[in-house]
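In response to the reviewer comment on reproducibility (Comment 2.3), we provide here a single inverse folding case reported in full, input and output, so that an independent group could reproduce the run without further information from us. The structure tokens appear first.
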């Protein structure tokens, strides 16, 4: 991949980390941001301090506030916009995209309102079939990836050729990439695990201990699998990197935004105050709204998601939510929630 050109949209923590991976693989990378001051900091100081502290970014990575400059000549384009902004960013990018450019995304969420997966949003805005697109996901905190700590992810596409192309762009000795053909499973797993991480942060913030968190993660995985399979995903995906792998790291790591947001909620802060303190997108909040509606649409029981929805948007206390979960009717582990 040496001397090839790639673009990454946008310059948040994960977008910057993936841009760094590509630059270290010898690619010329243009990282797009709306923020001129952020672009200048990246280009002059070689840092993105708001999102990644004092980590020095590789020289092959340059930032720009011009979409046209970012995409001109790009042979691979990685969309890492927040789910709420993905359609807007894709629409702005479409006029400058080469028809031969590899396109993939690394965003974990659903579109608000339509409840569409990010691959579907990209396909609509870029005028491409979903089979020509890919998604990168898995247990991969940006703070560790940018420091070249060992990380393993999965890239999924309905086309094995597209998946392998994406694998070739990113693979190196610090960043191992597997391929998968279950796009729906990978996207659903990546989105819903953020909800369970919010719950894990709440549980830890309330001092409920390791037993409670282990149960939350395990039953959370059951909810992810049920919804994913109802939407057409393969069950084995949820036992892989995009499923249980990402779920574990997001529910247990100090780097997890969703875990931190949940722990702040446990202190009694209102959701608006929590989001203001975070200062970054917390995808699990929007995803809770989407997943709660998807559960109803598909007739899938998702009691953890339902209770978190009530905490986030209906004023229910975390303690009451736990009591509701623990007081549910008895059932069989493998047959129902």
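Designed residues, in position order:
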């Amino acid at each position: 991949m040496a001397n090839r050109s790639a673009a990454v949209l946008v310059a948040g923590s994960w977008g910057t980390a993936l841009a760094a991976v590509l630059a270290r693989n010898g690619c010329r990378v243009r990282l797009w941001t709306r923020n001129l001051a952020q672009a200048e900091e990246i280009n002059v100081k070689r840092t993105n301090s708001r999102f990644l502290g004092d980590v020095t970014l590789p020289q092959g990575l340059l930032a720009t506030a011009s979409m046209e400059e970012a995409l001109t000549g790009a042979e691979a384009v990685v969309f890492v916009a927040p789910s709420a902004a993905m359609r807007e960013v894709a629409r702005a990018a479409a006029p400058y995209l080469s028809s031969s450019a590899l396109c993939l995304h690394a965003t974990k969420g659903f579109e608000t309102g339509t409840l569409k997966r990010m691959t579907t949003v990209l396909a609509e805005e870029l005028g491409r079939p979903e089979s020509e697109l890919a998604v990168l996901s898995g247990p991969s905190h940006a703070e560790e990836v940018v420091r070249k700590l060992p990380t393993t992810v999965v890239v999924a596409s309905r086309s094995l050729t597209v998946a392998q192309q994406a694998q070739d762009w990113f693979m190196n000795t610090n960043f191992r990439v597997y391929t998968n053909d279950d796009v729906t499973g990978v996207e659903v797993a990546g989105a819903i695990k953020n909800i369970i991480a919010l719950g894990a942060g709440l549980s830890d913030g309330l001092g409920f201990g390791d037993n409670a968190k282990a149960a939350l993660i395990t039953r959370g995985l059951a909810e992810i699998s049920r919804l994913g399979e109802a939407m057409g995903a393969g069950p084995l995906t949820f036992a892989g990197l995009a499923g249980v792998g990402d779920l574990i790291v997001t529910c247990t790591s100090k780097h997890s935004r969703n875990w931190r947001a949940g722990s702040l909620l446990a202190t009694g802060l209102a959701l608006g105050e929590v989001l203001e303190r975070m200062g970054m997108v917390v995808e699990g909040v929007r995803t809770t709204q989407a997943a709660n509606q998807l559960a109803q649409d598909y007739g899938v029981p998702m009691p953890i998601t339902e209770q978190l929805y009530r905490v986030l948007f209906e004023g229910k206390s975390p303690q009451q939510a736990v009591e509701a979960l623990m007081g549910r009717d008895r059932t069989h582990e493998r047959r129902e929630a």
